[in-house]
Amino acid sequence: MEKVRYMISDAARILALEQHVLRYWEDELQLDIPRNEMGHRYYTDENIKELMRIKELRSQGYQLKAIRMYLKKERQIAKKEKENSAFPEDMDGFVTLTNAKELGLCPEPSGELEDVSQDGTRIKLEQFKILMSEIIAEAMRDNNELLTTHVEERILKEMNYLMQEHYQMEEDYYKKLDEAIRGSIRKKKQEKKKFFAKKRTP
User: Fold this and answer.
1) Do 155 and 67 form a contact (C-beta atoms < 8 A)?
2) For a surface tag, which of 7, 9, 99, 132 has the fewest beta carbons within 10 Å of its beta carbon?
3) Pick from 15, 3, 151: which is nearest to 74 by CA?
4) Between 165 and 6, where is the model more confident?
5) 130-187 residue pLDDT tens
6) The pTM is what?
7) Mapped to the 3 state alphabet, what secondary structure does 99-110 carry?
8) Which of 29, 2, 3, 24 is nearest to 12 (CA)?
9) CA distances from residue 114 to 109, 111, 125, 127 in whole angstroms, order as listed
10) How far apart are the C-alpha atoms of 96 and 147, rounded to whole Å?
11) CB 100: neighbour CB atoms within 10 A?
């Protein structure tokens, strides 16, 4: 099935943004926007979703530099998960186990169970253990997804804070530089005035 392609005008209308904003974001955030045979941009559903996420983050006050770092980290995580699809790794490098068997909670079938297959109580107990193992595995899986989202948001907030702090430091530096230059100019003017005042004095 062929993917839906949106021209830049369609994408701008869907996102309620100007076309120049989409071009600017593409450059600043290093977005992978495909081109057609004529070299014109077109947008897939994935691109639209990513741009909607960026728009949402911008509306929350995040700087483009912070968003770029966040997207870069997100792509790295997605790439890592794709490469290690059998055992996807979390951001901290721990392996995420997704079912009871991988977690070591599901007992392996053994001959012992077959020997006591007539014992209904034993079978029910084993079934209960397996069921509980699956419930625990599912709870851990859900908690892992929640934790990943929380960590991503925290990283983004931290990056945004660092960017704002950096801009503030730059602003303070240029203010001080401006004050120093103005002070130097004033001093030179005063020295010139004194010099000409001395010359005029007979």
Assistant:
1) no
2) 9
3) 151
4) 6
5) 667 667 766 666 666 555 666 667 777 777 777 777 777 777 888 888 888 888 888 8
6) 0.45
7) CHHHHCCCCCCC
8) 24
9) 9, 5, 14, 13
10) 12
11) 21
* Upper half-sphere CA count for residue 51 (Cβ side, 13 Å): 27
- Token pair recorded at residue 111: 């001959």
At 108, is the secondary structure helix, strand, or coil? coil
- Residue 94 DSSP label: P
CA distance linking residue 161 with residue 165, whole number of Å: 6
Which pLDDT score, from 0 to 100, does residue 113 have?
42
**pLDDT tens across 9-35, in order?**
999 999 999 999 999 999 999 899 999
Alpha-carbon gap, residue 76 to 80, rounded angstroms: 6
* 189: Cα separation from own chain's centroid: 53
Tell me how far apart the alpha carbons of residues 57 and 54 are, in angstroms, rounded to a whole number: 5
Question: Helix or strand or coil: residue 189?
Answer: helix
Residues 42 and 36: beta-carbon distance below 8 Å? yes
Question: Rounded to an integer, what distance in angstroms lies between the CA atom of residue 41 and that of residue 6?
Answer: 9
Return the pLDDT at 46.
92
Containing H/E element for 6?
strand 6-7
